[in-house]
Write a structure and sequence with these properties.
Layout: H1 7-18, E1 24-27, E2 42-45, H2 53-60, E3 64-67, H3 81-99, E4 104-110, E5 120-122, H4 133-152, E6 155-161, E7 163-165, H5 177-186, E8 191-194, E9 198-203, H6 204-216, E10 224-227, E11 232-234, H7 235-246, E12 252-256, E13 263-265, H8 268-273, H9 282-301, H10 308-321, H11 325-344, H12 355-367, H13 369-387, H14 393-398, H15 400-466, H16 468-478, H17 484-499, E14 504-509, E15 515-521, E16 532-534, H18 539-546, E17 551-552, E18 563-569, E19 572-579, H19 589-615, H20 617-620, E20 627-628, H21 630-645, E21 651-656, H22 663-670, E22 679-682, E23 688-693, H23 697-709, E24 714-718
Length: 720
């Protein structure tokens, strides 16, 4: 993605993240901020014409490049140099993309390049006649892209979008006419409406969806496509609707009362070849967009209303008359000197002070030779005027003292101005070299840091691939057990190592599929996880898992886990494995597939263990009961102790008082009160125990009370 932070870039990144694509961003403003867009693998802050662009392309080898062009906030189009920077940057990117083997370059243009005086339907073959600097530069960019595509065999596609509107994370399109009018209305400015102009408004979500579809199509039939809504609205219609939504009655000034003929942009080619469709209609989404824009505008201008007019006036004056400021300052200084000389003329105390000389030297020091000449002329005119009040102009002209004075001012003023200019030029040259070298050093550091980071990511993937047999053997050896509980506890460790995660939890699903009970969780989050969760609260996650697919949090919702998947036994969901957080570099398709493989291995191990338990139930349980034998019970108790020591699971054990009741009778009484993951067992002395999984002492009081209500006494509570 080549563009600066704004409405389109933010929406496009969110879409690509949702589709699990790896995104790199080149920020054309060259800012050195280290704040990265969420969901971006790497972000580079260089101007588009930087010589480092080629190194960046070579380091990441992108498949598709999207040049945001008409939707790039980098260019304000208020100054002529924007066109120069745009064209130079585009050429640099085309050359770098071709050298690095980019498969496709998408160039975002605008429908503003068409002749605004056309009638009827406007398609891709309609004549172009751009009027403004922005439109002419973007159209020239189209021709450059097409020529480069033909000459260098680069796959290029040009998307001419109409006025893109929308609101996303505080961003809006400043070039959209409805945004401009809304801003003017909110700030109480006069709104100038051209009745002859019409606009086609396209929602940003529809545009990013179309661009993603273009990246997935192997072969395109054409190079140019109109991406538009298909219906036009006049400026007057837009203004009236904005006034209606904002509840204002802003004055309007019409600059053109002439109604033009009907003309509509046509998007049939995009619909047919790119499967383009409109999801967000302008009529339905306009009001919401304006309200969002209003809230954003209030936040931005809060606390600045008292000085807004002053700031606006200063910015306007600086933009319009900035070049005149040195002359203005010279004139103001001259008027002050002229006033001093005029009021003190003839004074014996100030006769030795030459105010003109001070004025000329001061101007020479501040502005150099250029303004010094003006200061000399003004000083000469002032002296002639003041002395002419005492003598004639002819006497002044023949007085050699006048020429000596002028020569003195000229030599001193121009000498000081020359030295100042030379000194300033030397400093500027050195500062330019230092700035260039500092910039080069920073760019090299940033590219190197990025390359190291990306190298480590792919190096880890390569190592994982090469060592796949060793890793699979290591995983299967840890999961090679005949006790389901041991497999679950081992799975926590396996997932932490395999997925580079520290927030793993496993929940057992009840037979009625309404609740999930915590079985084990990573040490860092064990105490923070809910012991029991209603599955309806995990609607999105559970719906995906029920289809036997891995849930991936592509929308980056904070309330959702990064990854989640199910463990099945005989096609029945037995457990849900959750990873709450993953670093961004570990959220690719590769890691999702790796997670799925580990889940399958866990499921196979649990299936094997359950099969063993079913086949060995005769020796595992006491006859006609669900009470574990002392040997089986001790084994499970050791597993629970080990998990407790690792802080991945709690347990609590209650000793049941028999009161002359048989073990078979107690088994029948206790079974209804037990959860699926709890155990009944005896020790070598045939004392009966109830082992509560993932339960601490405080939570066990509920079970004790429930047993007491059934007439079952707990003689001693034990937790070892």
């Amino acid at each position: 993605m080549i563009g600066t932070q704004g409405l389109f870039l933010e929406a496009m990144i969110a879409k690509l993240n949702k589709e699990a694509q790896e995104v790199f961003v080149l920020d054309g403003k060259g800012s050195k901020t280290k704040q990265k867009h969420p969901g971006v693998m790497e972000e580079y802050h260089f101007g588009y014409d930087s010589e480092n662009i080629e190194d960046i392309f070579n380091s990441i080898n992108p498949d598709v490049v999207v040049f945001t062009g008409a939707l790039d906030p980098t260019f304000t189009w208020k100054q002529q140099r924007d066109s120069v920077h745009y064209s130079a940057g585009l050429n640099n990117i085309l050359i770098s993309a071709n050298k690095s083997g980019v498969k496709r370059l998408i160039y975002l243009s605008t429908t503003d390049v068409y002749d605004p005086m056309q009638f009827g339907y406007i398609n891709e073959q309609s004549p172009t006649n751009p009027k403004g600097q922005r439109e002419k530069t973007i159209l020239n960019g189209e021709e450059t892209v097409l020529a480069y595509g033909r000459d260098e065999n680069l796959d290029v596609v040009i998307l001419r979008s109409s006025d893109v509107y929308g609101y996303y994370k505080g961003y809006y399109n400043e070039h959209c006419r409805c945004s401009e009018i809304a801003k003017q209305v909110l700030e109480g400015e006069s709104v100038y409406v051209d009745k002859g102009k019409k606009y086609d408004f396209l929602h940003v979500t529809d545009l990013v969806q179309l661009i993603f579809q273009v990246t997935q199509i192997d072969q395109l039939a054409h190079e140019k496509y109109n991406i538009c809504y298909g219906r036009s609205y006049s400026e007057e219609e837009v203004f009236n609707r904005i006034n209606e939504v904002l509840g204002k009655e802003q004055d309007v000034k019409y600059i053109n009362d002439t109604q033009l003929g009907e003309s509509e942009l046509v998007n049939e080619r995009a619909k047919k070849e790119l499967n383009f469709s409109i999801k967000y209609t302008f009529e339905e989404n306009f009001e919401e967009m304006v309200e969002d824009f209003k809230r954003s505008h209030i936040i931005r201008t809060k606390g600045k209303k008292g000085f807004r007019w002053l700031i606006r006036a200063r910015e306007s004056a600086e933009e319009t008359f900035g070049w005149f400021f040195p002359y203005f300052e010279t004139i103001i200084g001259f008027l002050i000197i002229h006033f001093l000389v005029f009021t003190t003329y003839g004074s014996s105390y100030l006769r030795t002070i030459d105010f003109y000389l001070l004025f000329v030297v001061l101007i020479a020091i501040v502005y150099g030779k250029g303004q010094t000449i003006i200061a000399l002329l003004l000083s000469f005119a002032s002296r002639v005027y003041i002395e002419s009040m005492q003598t004639s102009v002819f006497d002044i002209a023949v007085d050699y003292n006048t020429y000596i004075w002028m020569l003195q001012l000229l030599i001193i003023g121009m000498g000081v101005g020359y030295i100042r200019d030379q000194y300033r030029q030397t400093i500027d040259d050195k500062e330019e070299v230092i700035e260039y070298l500092d910039g080069e050093l920073e760019e090299i550091k940033e590219i190197n840091h990025s390359n190291i980071r990306i190298k480590k990511i792919f190096e880890n993937r390569l190592i994982n691939y090469k060592d796949s047999f060793a890793r699979i053997y290591d995983i299967t050896s840890q999961l090679n057990d005949l006790e389901p509980d041991q497999i679950v506890f081992a799975a926590i460790d396996v997932l932490e190592k395999t997925m580079n995660a520290r927030e793993v939890s496993i929940y057992r699903v009840d037979a009625n599929r309404k609740y999930a009970r915590l079985m084990a969780a990573s040490e860092d989050i064990h105490n923070a996880k809910a012991k029991s969760v209603e599955l309806s609260s995990w609607a999105k996650v559970f719906e995906t898992i029920e289809t036997k697919e891995v849930f991936i949090n592509r929308t980056l919702e904070e309330t959702m886990p990064a990854l989640a998947g199910g463990v099945y036994y005989k096609d029945e969901l037995q457990a849900i494995v959750i990873i709450d957080h993953l670093d961004f570099e570990n959220t690719s398709f590769y890691h999702a597939n790796l997670f799925s493989v580990v889940l399958d291995l866990i499921a196979q191990s649990i299936s094997r263990a359950n099969q063993y338990i079913e086949e060995s139930s005769v020796t595992r349980y006491l006859p006609n009961t669900n009470i574990l034998t002392s040997k089986s019970f001790e084994k499970i108790l050791d597993i629970k102790k080990n998990a407790s020591e690792k802080h991945i699971a709690d347990y609590h054990m209650l000793q049941i008082e028999k009161k002359n009741r048989s073990l078979q009778e107690l088994s029948e009484l206790l079974s209804p009160t037990m959860r699926q993951q709890d155990y009944l067992g005896i020790d070598e002395s045939e004392n009966l125990y109830l082992l509560l999984t993932n339960t601490n002492k405080d939570e066990a009081t509920v079970v004790v009370r429930r047993l007491s209500e059934k007439g079952i006494a707990v003689r001693e509570e034990v937790r070892t």
